[in-house]
Amino acid sequence: MAAPELGTGPAVLAVDVGGTQLKAAVLDGAGRLGGVVRRPTPRSAEDPGDAIVVGVAALLDELQRPDQRIGAIGLTIPGVVDEAAGIGRWSANLGWRDFGFRDALAARTELPIAVAHDVRAAGTAEARLGAARGVADAAIVVVGTGIAAALRIDGHSYAGNGSAGELGHLVIDPSGPRCACGKHGCLETLAAAPAIVRTYQELGGELVSGAAEVLARAQGGDQRAVHAWSSATSALGAGLGALSALVAPELIVLGGGLAEAGDALLGPVRAALSDYCAGLNVPRLVRAELGHDAGTWGAAILARDALLTR
Amino acid sequence: MAAPELGTGPAVLAVDVGGTQLKAAVLDGAGRLGGVVRRPTPRSAEDPGDAIVVGVAALLDELQRPDQRIGAIGLTIPGVVDEAAGIGRWSANLGWRDFGFRDALAARTELPIAVAHDVRAAGTAEARLGAARGVADAAIVVVGTGIAAALRIDGHSYAGNGSAGELGHLVIDPSGPRCACGKHGCLETLAAAPAIVRTYQELGGELVSGAAEVLARAQGGDQRAVHAWSSATSALGAGLGALSALVAPELIVLGGGLAEAGDALLGPVRAALSDYCAGLNVPRLVRAELGHDAGTWGAAILARDALLTR
Predict the structure, then answer these.
(1) Is residue A3 in some structural domain?
(2) Which of residues 99-158 of A touch B (CB under 8 A)?
């Protein structure tokens, strides 16, 4: 695939706030994304939202160049997000509650700011530039340390009452492990990367560095690893099956760290999805195209859109 | 509540095709629905679609009056429906496959015909005239011998790839009973009216006429009935919780035969839904307003709309 481009327009700063890393890049006037800069996510127990704002403003100073003025900032954040108001409603991991990112960052930088949910922004990027181009009804599912979906309905990002796409907290098996949310057997407890490691170790497996190593061991014939991988892919297929029975997208795009496994993930998940959809239409299942940079691309798109609609 | 009205316009015939009954009524020029006529659903092993068309044409002759010409027919059918093409893709219960209801009925009656999925049509009626008036993102859930949902997204009926809203085939508990679809523990096997009767009888309960009698016995102190009812309402709450985690409507409307139970259904379902949505926004849950006639109202609305958009 050719490197994606967004077309000519103002240069903007794209910042993707993750639980451990803040990723930033400048989209230039030609619509190309520059090299991604990574920083540890700034944290503050007293004012976690403001710590992010201060860190983003410092990145703006660092990445600003005299020959290319940055015209807007796109910021993607995790948790529950009110995108229209630019407010981070809450993040269990990073600690803010009802923090007005848009207004605080605009006051500090005097730039237009767009704020979006990280997974929905990645979905917007896959829809505009990646694997979901031209598809009206699609779900972009990000599987990594957590699991969430961005829903595209009739060509638009859909958030419902604000919590749409919380696929990770769908109960797949009520006799499963207890989830941080209080329920048992949520998809995240069965198919996210940490769950794969935990299942493997509960089966008596070796100490491993992560889910990728469990897959490598499975491919090398370690039967405990085979079982842990297959248990996770079955659960993920059931989760996508439930998504299909309710939302019935034409296309499901799988992204996030676990999707790096490629066909070793997509093959068994596709089979489980197809089993679940007996009698229903089965969505196509493909791998995301923008990889780790989907969130950063999403932030860039939103910043450009914010300038266009002013 | 005042009797619903659709406003002035052409008179139309509304026909709601169910698994056992065909319900028909004329919507008059003032927008009032006349008395509902019921007939056994016409069946034919050789040509099940045509048997419906012949039956609807006979009803048209019967209900046509010289002083009020019927200008269109709205027909709602179960199963998988291609509404844009007017085709019944398939009905497991009634037996057709890819039958062109719109064209066949138009050829026979020389009237404009609108064809819609029965549950989505009931959803359209609740959205236009009933409990979901003025709500952009809503789910209308019909619980009776089966369970299905009509999704309203941004004020429009949403079908996705054609199978959206198949809530009855969401797996709630993989260790549950085998479903007709081949999976285990689908919501329909746990919470539809026949499931409530089956659970009660498996617990050693008396022979009963239906789910309403199980509820009556539960309210009279029969502990087996209490258990059967509570098991069904928990499962239904989990199903609506999964719907909320994925689709996040502002409002869920409960209709169908089981909703006749009123607060005896809504109370425990609301509690289970709220438990499921820990950390997420919880949709409001209310009872449908149009009762048994929602599907017939939906057919009338679609027939009127078909005439307006010609």
Answers:
(1) no
(2) 137, 149, 151, 153-154, 156, 158
Q: What is the pLDDT of residues B156-204, one digit of tens each?
A: 999 998 889 999 999 999 999 999 889 999 999 999 999 999 999 999 9
Q: Which two tokens stand for residue B161?
A: 């790839």
Q: Is the pLDDT of residue B121 over 70?
A: yes
Please report whether residue B276 resides in a domain. yes
Total domains in the fold of chain B? 2
Look at A161 and B243 and tell me if their CB atoms are within 8 Å.
no
Same domain, B152 and B284: yes
Residue B2: its pLDDT value, please?
65
In this structure, the strands spanning A87-90 and A97-100 are: antiparallel
Residues from chain B that touch A80, judged by Cβ atoms under 8 A, are 280-281
Mean pLDDT of the region B4-23 = 92
Q: What is the residue range of A260's domain?
A: 134-288
A163 touching B (Cβ < 8 Å): yes
No. of helices (H) and no. of strands (E), chain B:
9, 13
A161 interfacial to chain B (CB closer than 8 Å): yes
Residues B220-247 have pLDDT tens digits of 999 999 999 999 999 999 999 999 999 9
A300 and A257 in a single domain? The answer is no
Our CA-based measurement puts residue B69 at a distance from the nearest CA of chain A, in whole angstroms, of 38
| Cα four-point dihedral sign B248, B249, B255, B261 | positive
